[in-house]
Amino acid sequence: MAKRDYYEVLGLDRNASDEDIKKAYRRLAKKYHPDLNPDNKEAEAKFKEVNEAYQVLSNAQARAQYDQFGHDGPTGQGFEGFDFGGGFGDIFDMFFGGGFGGSRSSRRRGPVAGADLRYDLRISFEEAAFGTKKEIEVVRMETCPDCQGTGAKKKSDSKTCNVCNGTGEVQEAQNTAFGRFVNVRTCDRCNGEGTIISNPCGKCHGRKKIRRVRRLSVTIPAGIDNGQAITLRGEGEPGERGGPHGDLYVYISVKPHKIFKRNGYDLHCEMPITFGQATLGAELEIPSLNGRVKYTIPEGTQTGTVFRLRNQGISHLRGSGKGDLYVRVNVDVPKRLSEDQKAVLRQFEEMTRDRNDQRKSFFDKMKDVFGA
Question: What is the pTM assigned to this prediction?
Answer without folding.
Answer: 0.59
